Amino acid sequence: MQEKNRKRGKLFYKLLLIFLIVSLVPLGIVGYYLISLTQVTLNKAITRDQEALAVGFSDTVSNYVISFRNILYESAHLEDFYTMNMEKERSMVNHLMQVHSAFLEISVINALGEETIRMVRFSDSNKTRDFINDPVYRKVMKTGEYIGGFEKYNGTYPCITVAIQIVNPNTSYAAGMVMAKLSLNSLSGLLKTSFPDATHTQAAVIDINGFLIAHSNPEEVLKKNAKLPDEILKILLQNDAKSGGGEIPLITGERVLGAFSEVEAFGWVVYIQRSISVAYQASRDMLDKTWKVMLLVTVFVLFLGYAVSIVITQPIQALREAAIKLGEGDFNYLPDISIPNDEIGELAHTFMEMSDSLKVKTAEIIDAKEQLEKLNRSLENRVEARTRELKSAQEELIKKERLAAMGQMASVVSHEIRNPLAVINNSIYFIKTKTNAQPNPEPKIVKHIGIIESEIRQANGIIDEILSFARSRDLKPKVTNLHAYLEDLLMSYPFPQHIQLEKHFAGEHFMVNIDQDEMNQVIRNLIKNGIEVMPEVGKMIIRTEWLPDDTVRIDIEDTGPGIPKDVLDKLFTPFFTTKARGTGLGLAVVKKAIERHKGRVEIASVVGKGTCFKFALPLYKGAMPPPPPPRA
Predict the structure, then answer these.
(1) pTM for this one?
(2) 83-136, pLDDT tens digit by residue?
(3) In a domain, 600, yes or no
(4) What does the angle CA 353 – CA 357 – CA 358 come to, to the nearest 5 degrees?
(5) Domain containing 124: what range?
(6) Domain check: are 483 and 607 in the same one?
(7) CA-wise closest residue to 613 among 627, 625, 599, 626
């Protein structure tokens, strides 16, 4: 019994000594390192926080100017301005001056550079000026807006000039500009509120020349040629970085923690400065608390070493090794230990039973997982296939319901609208006959009769498009020489004088089986669309090309402005149109007619260059052209 106690005592002291050496020495080294690292990290965090304040206020400065620029922009696009009605403009300018105290002066200049209205906050002088040769006026009329640099209004108040072009939305022409002097005094108020004297922090906004725009002490800005100290300006103005911070030594011998951020839109710089003693006070407090915590940890480690040294035994170490093997998936490993008849022995028996049970359960889980993965893959494939089938059936059903509804609507439109239109047309013809019979017919009456006739034609055209899309008459195909057919069709089409027609036909004997009336509607519709997008000058190109799949492709190309990519996918959708007036059925009718001829259609367009409609028709089997020669 004494031998056993003696061995246990030796093990206890050995473990305690080793634990203290292994624990306290690294703990002391790591503690010293962590204390130093904590102080450095906290100081860096304080510096980053100050940089974040500078970055945040630079955004505030930018938003301040942009918000008033947006106010002028929205005002300049109101009817009160673009109509250039002086009474409305004066009322609007007066309203802006009353609502926004930051505007020191607002002027309205017309398209001739003449100042029509001028309101000044701190003066009764409203003498107008001529801006025709003013660089600000020229830039605004060319680019749409102008935001000037920092200046002092009447030599005292910091401000900038903001000017916005007045645009008539109906004509998109510039009607003039509205120009304002925007006070920057509010920025000093924001700085003073954000950084009061109690925080021992100074903040300022400077321009690219170092002059003060705003300061947390507003009286500094009112000084003549107010600037920050030269040692600070040298750092701020010669630094290429957008933001930064660090310690700065002053001429007085004091060291301060400074941070800056550039106001990118204007080239200004926001600068925030705190005394080192104040800025790093939190770091020193944290250092004192950290030393106290390290002392408590040392005491705790001593107690923990004593406790662990008592309870650690070799069976525990063996069980630990067995647990590691078990974690690696080795379920056959058994610890080679002598199991005592105590709590540790019971723990060892429980561990063995757990190992056997875990081995069985793991095998069952792996098998179940494999089966579940197989079922999941099979279920996913089935769901995906059913989803595709359901979606296809749903789309087909919607399409059929839409066509059925269009057929009913077309019938109603034909009966309920065309008959009244015919009556109106006959009536207006009678009125026109009576009017023309008079010696001097009233011009306004003649004009309005023409308008009514034009609108009747427009309405009949809309009805024709709807009926063409909704009704499906039987095709009357006829074997046709494609090039001869195209020549006749183009010769009879009334091309305007400003449109140049080019024809590029490949081969001579392309025979197609087509319904000529329906194909006339397709080609005329596409040519008409191309001419409409070229109101001044342009070129229409008609070409044909044999394709290896026994089809002939017909290209109808224009040199218009092109079609944006986001619109291309919707062009053949019924009722989709980009025109101010139209049913959106023209291209839908085109697609339907080509598909009825077992053909296909596609569009190629480049914005700024033009659009090409390409549709392919199957060649007549009785007259197959020879394959084209290989290209060089």
Answers:
(1) 0.43
(2) 888 888 889 889 998 998 889 899 999 888 888 889 888 777 667 888 889 999
(3) yes
(4) 115
(5) 77-183
(6) yes
(7) 599
